[in-house]
Structures are given as structure tokens and as C-alpha cells.
Amino acid sequence: MTEISGSDPLVRLEGVNKHFGPLHVLKDIGLSVGRGEVVVVIGPSGSGKSTLCRVINRLETTDTGTIVFDGRELPAEGRALARLRSEVGMVFQSFNLFSHKTILENVTLGPTRVRKISRQQAEQRGMELLERVGITSQAGKYPAQLSGGQQQRAAIARALAMDPKMILFDEPTSALDPEMVQEVLDVMTGLAKDGMTMMVVTHEMGFARRAANRIVFMADGQIVEEGSPSEFFTQPSTERARDFLSKILTH
């Protein structure tokens, strides 16, 4: 279902390269993500997936290439970069919640500080979002009092509180106990159905099959192959993808 990208993608990367010292982690990346599209990025460890996610909101800088978000080239720094970051939500592998603030305070901090929304408005919206992710009863608790799955759902609510145009998910379930993974994936699947533009780095192949419009397969810092889930999982076109799938789908 790659046609969603259309002629006016929300994100476009052209010729993006990134080195960490001698390590060439992103090699001439070209990729577009359409408005309302769910792109799932998969591949072996060390293939550049997380770095790809992080360059889109400049948590990592690039060496060469162009990244355009919503019609504007990514700013390097300053207020313009802060504005961009407020439009691109990010959900990390580790939940990155403020331990000294309640769950509701974590969710309302961005809207009140960055968007200058009143505390009352932010709290009302925050409670709506906690209900959406299924943890309203945890609003007054602190992160350490919640399970990993509940903390990650709080992190998703925090990202949604900024009304982002896109959310980046960097292996959001890899730090969770197996029984908590599904509750987080269910929330993400709901967001996908609601039309949220998402890029998801994950090892959860069931989620990739169900929720993705497009699979992007990376290896050795390059995009090796991309296509719809039905194409990729049943008829991968490259030997590298076939080898990867043969190893992960036999478990």
C-alpha cells in the first residue's frame, strides 16, 4: 500500500549519510513517508534502523543529504528545531519518563511548557489520552509504581499530548516483559487505524504484518528492500531479506 506516500510526503530523505567515527551507519538513504502512512522498519541489529529514526527529528545529525519534514528542510538548531521536535513525537525503548513527576504531570509538561496551554486544558486533554491508552487509574502515580507496559503507554500518551504530525517509535517493546508487549502493540495498532503517521522500528513481525502500510528492510546501513507486508513476508525480492526472514520466522 505504498501509494499513500503520494506526491506530497510528510517526510522525505534524500542521499542521507551518517558516520559514527569510521562506522558508516546510514548509506545514501532515500525514503519518503506519506501522511497517514505506517512504515515499519525491520532488519538485523546494527543495520541503522534506530539511527534512521533519530535523524528525522535531529536527535542525531547527518553528514550529508537532505531531510524535509512537512515541506520544510530540517533546521539545524534553535527555535525552528524546537518547533519541529514538537511536531514529531518520539517513543523510545526506555520510557524516559520523569521519575519525580506523576504520570499526568509527565503527560501535561510538554503542552504547558512548549504549547503554552493552560494547566486545566492540559490536564483535561491528558486524562483523555490516558483513557485512550488504558491507564486513567494510574494518573496520580509515579513511573516507578507502574509496570513497564503501563510506563510505555504513558510515554505514548505523552507523545500524543503534543498533537504531533508524526510519531517515531524506536523499538518500543524491546525492554518489556513478553506479557506486556501486546498491550503496547494494541495501543499502537489503534493509532495506526486512526490515521497517525508513524515510523516504527521493531522486531515484532506480527505487528508489522497487521499495522504497516509498508515494510522497509535495512541491512548494513542501507535500505535493501521495501514493499507491502503481503509482498515482503511472502515474496521478498532480495536474498538478504529472504535470509533474514528465514531466521526470524522459524522461532
Automatic annotation (TrEMBL):
It is an enzyme of class 7 (translocase). SUPFAM superfamilies: P-loop containing nucleoside triphosphate hydrolases. It is a peripheral membrane protein. Keywords: Amino-acid transport, ATP-binding, Cell membrane, Membrane, Nucleotide-binding, Transport. The keyword Cell membrane applies. Transmembrane segments: none annotated. SMART domains: AAA (SM00382). Its EC number is 7.4.2.1. The keyword Cell membrane applies. It is found in: Cell membrane. Residues 11-245 form the ABC transporter domain. GO terms for cellular component: plasma membrane. It holds the Pfam family ABC_tran. GO terms for molecular function: ATP binding; ATP hydrolysis activity; ATPase-coupled polar amino acid-transporter activity. It catalyses: a polar amino acid(out) + ATP + H2O = a polar amino acid(in) + ADP + phosphate + H(+). Belongs to the ABC transporter superfamily. This is ABC-type polar-amino-acid transporter. It comes from Microbispora bryophytorum.
